[in-house]
Amino acid sequence: MSFLPLLIFPALAAVLAFHMVRPSTRHLRVSMAALLPVPPPSTASRLKFSLRNLVLSVRFWLRLAVVLTLMAALWPFLLTRSQEERPPGSVRLVLDLSPSMGVSDPGGGSRMTLALAELQKAVAQVDRLAAEDGDSCIEVALVGGAGPVTVSPYAALDFSRLEPARDGMPPARLLDALRMRGSAPCPPPSHAVIVTDQPPRP
């Protein structure tokens, strides 16, 4: 009779016993520092400032890039005024003096009278902006007939003597008045107002 089958049971019991048995004690490594007295607190500074820390810090450069990107994106909104809100430095008013400006409207008064009223409104608006934010220079370009276009300071004109011209003119002359040299001391116009009875053109 072979004894090998009988050895299976003791071997199985030995494997179970090996994995079930655990030692009741553990080996611990204790540092000698735990047995020494507590040292007094150090008087040296715990913070150290050095440029080397910034140069070698990857996190610093990443955070700096994020901050600069946000500043570049928000810069237009941090300005107190946008370019469109700034007061006009020099305003040129172009007044149409073609023969059609002498035509009377059904509501009463000629087109010239209505044009001068609109001109006064534009001047009042410019004066309001200038009073809030700075000086402005207003000049008037008179365009009518085949004669030359004259550009004069607003304060030097006597509007009561203005009359429509007898000769007609092409509407393009109104735009040509914007390219003419202004009257001293006004700089080149930054804003323009064209007062005419011509229909809007694209």
Write down the overall geometry. Answer: rod-shaped
Tell me how many strands there are: 4
Report the major sheet.
Answer: 4 strands, mixed
pLDDT below 50 for ≥5 consecutive residues: which ranges?
Answer: 82-88
Rg over C-alpha atoms, rounded to the nearest angstrom: 46 Å
Alpha plus pi helix count: 5
Q: What is the strand arrangement across the widest sheet?
A: 3-2-1-4
**Proportion of strand residues:** 5-15%
* Terminus-to-terminus distance: 118 Å
Derived structural class: alpha/beta
Q: Average pLDDT, to the nearest integer? A: 76
What structural keywords apply?
202 residues; alpha/beta; 4-stranded mixed sheet; 37% helix; rod-shaped
Can you tell me about this structure?
The chain is of the alpha/beta class. Helix content is 37%, strand content 11%. The chain has helices spanning 4-20, 51-55, 58-78, 111-133, 172-179, and strands at 90-96, 137-143, 150-153, 191-195. The chain has a four-stranded mixed β-sheet with strand order 3-2-1-4, sandwiched between helices. The longest helix is centred in the middle third of the chain and has 23 residues, at 111-133.
How would the blueprint of this fold be written?
Elements: H1 4-20, H2 51-55, H3 58-78, E1 90-96, H4 111-133, E2 137-143, E3 150-153, H5 172-179, E4 191-195
Parallel strand pairs: 1-2, 1-4
Antiparallel strand pairs: 2-3
Question: Quick gist of this model?
Answer:
It contains five helices and four strands; from the N terminus they run αααβαββαβ. With 202 residues, it is of the alpha/beta class.
